[in-house]
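Page 37, top half.
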Amino acid sequence: MPRPTRPIGLCVAMLCAVAVSAPAAAESPAQFYKGKTVTLLVGGSPGGGYATYAGILGRHMGRHIPGKPRIVNKSMPGAGSLKALKVLYKRSKRDGTVMAAVFQGALMEPLLGTRGVEFDALKLNYIGELNSEPKVCFSWHTSKVKRFEDLQTMEMIVGASGSTSGLFQYATVLKNVLGAKLKVIAGYKGSAGVSLAMQRGETQGMCGFSWSSFHTNHPTWIAEKKVTILAQIGQKPVPMLTKLGVPEVWKFVKNPDERKAMELIFNPPGRPYVMPPNVPKDRLEAMRAAFSATLKDPQFIAETKKSRIAINPSSGAKVEALMRKLYASSPKVVGIAKAALSRKGTIKCKNFTDPKYCRSKKKKKKKKSS
């Protein structure tokens, strides 16, 4: 009978489609990741703390991902990690093969920034954070500033990189909220460039430098009296710094709302690792589990100890919960925080005197052909 021919044909086609799509839908994370390469975008400059941490994580995490894919780190500095976030959010694959290490300040840009951003921080997938740590503010030995209180009467020139970097944000907040006489020169090539500029004599100190990077990269500076640490900034004091008499910055904050605003800026996840939106749930969970397993890996632990870097991690679920809490801050606190991050008075690196380690380079004018 001719009539059932079309319906039967349609049913056969539908069954074939289901049969074809079934293996892909049932593909496990191990099957998916086998033979794959996972790209880790690093939103900090080579030689800086973010590159160091990401390098160590990338060397070990692949062993704990189902299917054991290879992890390749790709340096992508620029705009305080916003460049890496833009690429991750708008251009990267959403299949679980791309992740990024970004500045904590960059994650808060949609809430606290004054310029348009092209990502939603609450739609990102959080894998975890490696180190939530305090920052330090210090003066170079050639500076007359020897105590944090001196900044009320003496100017200190400090370098910074992008506007979402800790070196920029911490110095700017201390200037705008506590009245510290900090002249911020922005646009250096990451923390390594800022540090070299200070040692060269272009600047006189640094504010917002992570304690782990300081302790790892410059372990002799305190003993050799090359620096004076003026303040420590974090959720908990560092016993070593407290023993040395370094005050917590909270000692100088008198207004409760200003403290809440400063906590909003200073307390996002430290050294966070993220993936783009819409990553398949089973692959996200596999990556989160691999991140947690890496932290217990003897080889990973041995390398972190050899490199003298601190690990104070949190899981992806905890980082996600923290981000939702921060983004639920009251409009009043958010307003104070935005004012605290005002770039008014900041000098661009390229306009500063002979900035050898400035990110921007003047382009040579082409000679007109005669």
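Page 37, bottom half:
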Amino acid sequence: MAERILRPESQAAQALGRVDDATGAIIPPIHPATTFERDPDLAYSRGRAYARADNPTYAAAADTLTALEGGCRTLLFSSGMAAATAIFLALSPGDHVVVPRVMYWGLRAWLTGFATRWGLTVDLVDMADPAALEAALRPGRTRLVWLESPANPTWDVADIAAVAALTHRAGARLAVDSTVATPVLTRPLELGADLVMHSATKYLNGHSDVIAGTVTTARADEFWERVTAVQVQNGAILGPFEAWLLQRGMRTLFPRVRWQCDTALILAHRLAGHPRVAAVLYPGLPDFPGHALAARQMRGGFGGMLSIRVAGGAPAAVAVAARVGLWTRATSLGGVESLIEHRASVEGPASPVPDDLLRLSVGLEAAEDLWADLEAALEAR
């Protein structure tokens, strides 16, 4: 009988169906070993030598994500920043890269600071404008295009397939930060991306108890070997306990993300009609500029992240965040608890984020409770 191909939901829930050979345990064990025994002839017939390069617990989580993304291989990193920067560090000084104007602020700061001093040429463009991207590309010199969709914290959605076509025509690679969409909603490799990156601290883990990053590749080519070398030689690896927790989190990824999408959509519609909300930024709203693209590119939901611009400017926005009770004022996203924060004060004076914007990460609480808390915070004087 031919082996049945399982849907991603089943692959995630069963962690690819692994059962421990030694004990029959249905939960993969943690392997904390840092080193592995050589054979008498000094070979490593069991395939592992040292944990900086490999460990069975890393492999279990990496294999699960590879299957969910429809990729070839996955690397686990010690943080999302370690994962993202490894891709850029696999380039050579003098290479040209194109990145979005709106993106995770920590990576933007690294690119415009360290990466430019190290020797990369960096152009920031509006990725929703194909003409702007095409004008920024330098065939023969552009080596990488970086895309974030939806983009943090305005949640603009870029056309991954269109960006991939322009990127490849210029002879470059496309890497997509898909932290917010997750493989539940978007699989960038299917749309033409070469690499997909996640801050696995967020939705993949989903419990706010692991710092981790991942990169999955469409093919194991020479550039992938360079990314792997950056990880191993720089020691930017994930510990086995963190890898085990990441694997545990991915087993509930699909129901968590779908619940968060449903709640975010409810809140977005209600906030859009509130007199003290100047604008709601959420791809699921019909009047959002990228709604039609999001409906085509994102499967089964529009994400658990939204932002609001509060009428009355920055003081009003900060006051709303100060008055919530159920929402937690904290940085991060994708966990089971709902978070709210004033992004401009987090990102600092160089931030392109409007100072009246509050970013909301929807958790697993009841939608009615989250709405009641927000409504009270908005309406209080």
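Margin note: The domain at 253-379 is CATH 3.90.1150.10 (Aspartate Aminotransferase, domain 1).
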